[in-house]
Amino acid sequence: MGEPGPAPLAVVRRKRDTAFLTEARVAELIRPRPFGRERLIAERARLTQEMGPLDLWEGYRDFTAADDSFKRSSNSVRTSHKYGRVYVQLARRYRPWTVVEIGTAFGVSGMYWLAGLQANRRGRLVTFDPNRQWQEIARANLAAVSPRFTAVADTFEAGFEAAKIRFGRPGIAFIDGIHVGDIVKAQAEQLIGRLASPWILVFDDIRFNDGMYRCFREIEQAAGVVSAVEIESRVGILEVDPATGAPS
Description:
alpha/beta; 8-stranded mixed beta sheet; disordered N terminus; single chain
């Protein structure tokens, strides 16, 4: 027998025929294509990386090794350009009224989401990160792409209520903060419990550790989840429609 073929770029598991995330649509999302502000984002990301490693938020000490430098540069925590293009296309095709980002970091992933919102000429990014030094850098990066954002210098859990996010219109949530399964699951459940319209939840680094992937597959079984996508074992996407009730 011959060598096994390469793993598919994306795996789609649909529970409802009416789900937005069809195999054809996912194939379109992951097809590389240029977009407005692409060069600007690349240049902002390059300049941010040149700042070098900066201190992590103090709250991360519980999740780092004792010998950790406790500093990170932009490239060590940012979304790659390949996945950034996916986020631009997802925002353009789904046309969310709100994108909630948990984990602003230096604002690179947020710039991609904003590029999609700006192309739509509607929608707003609400992004959370408690690292105030990083937030100042992120704000400058985001503002270079679009004014359609609110940057909250706090954790999602602490700043969530005050942000007054509207869950009655379609939106996207990008969960990319602390990569600990229990924390990510709690954040996703907090979001899903408030949805009053269809939303898409995007998870970065779903194979970061066993707990992260287990968390993603458990959330996939939540009531209202109508489709799930895995892109290159890195990005997980769940489509949630609260009107569908419990999954079949």
